[in-house]
Design goal:
- By secondary structure, this protein is of the alpha+beta class.
- 24% of the residues lie in helices and 34% in strands.
- Strands 1-3-4-5-2 form a five-stranded antiparallel beta sheet, covered by helices on one side.
- β4 and β5 form a beta hairpin.
- The chain is elongated.
- The relative contact order is 0.24.
- The mean pLDDT is 93.
Length: 144
């Protein structure tokens, strides 16, 4: 299989973008807690969370960043893609009921291996940046 045939949607190009949105609910916090064991009171105890600089319940960072997993695995580069490296900075809290959008932009594509570098970010519906950073991805060929 040639390098340009590995990517299910064709070889990505620099500047190509994709995004995906979803509303975050209380159940997302509960499911992430089941998976991770993260029972931080900031995610559950409204009174305690209100007394912090966050001013209320916040969603776990893993829930916020998970939208980027979906964009990368489903859209760009697409199925067969996994993260090799991520560098993410969390800029603002996400709260239950917020709608988030994960954005990726291709910044580099290797021609010798199916490796793609991406600019990544997550925003709220009002445009507020909640996660910013970059990622390196590897796309493995999948038998179809």
């Amino acid at each position: 299989m040639t390098i340009d045939k590995v990517w299910p949607n064709g070889m990505p190009s620099v500047g190509q973008t994709a995004k995906r949105s979803r509303e975050i609910g209380k159940r997302d916090i509960e499911l992430f807690t089941e998976i991770s064991g993260d029972r931080n009171p900031l995610h559950y105890d409204e009174k305690m969370a209100k007394a912090t600089p966050f001013g209320g319940i916040v969603v776990q960072g893993g829930v916020t960043s998970a939208i980027l997993n979906a964009v990368v695995a489903e859209d760009l580069p697409g199925p067969g893609t996994v993260f090799l490296q991520v560098n993410w900075s969390f800029k603002a809290p996400v709260r239950p009921g917020d709608r988030i959008t994960g954005h990726v932009e291709v910044t580099r594509v290797r021609e010798d291996k199916p490796i793609t570098e991406l600019k990544t970010r997550v925003t709220l519906d009002d445009g507020k940046l909640v996660l910013d950073g970059d990622a390196v991805c590897y796309t493995m060929p999948l038998k179809r």
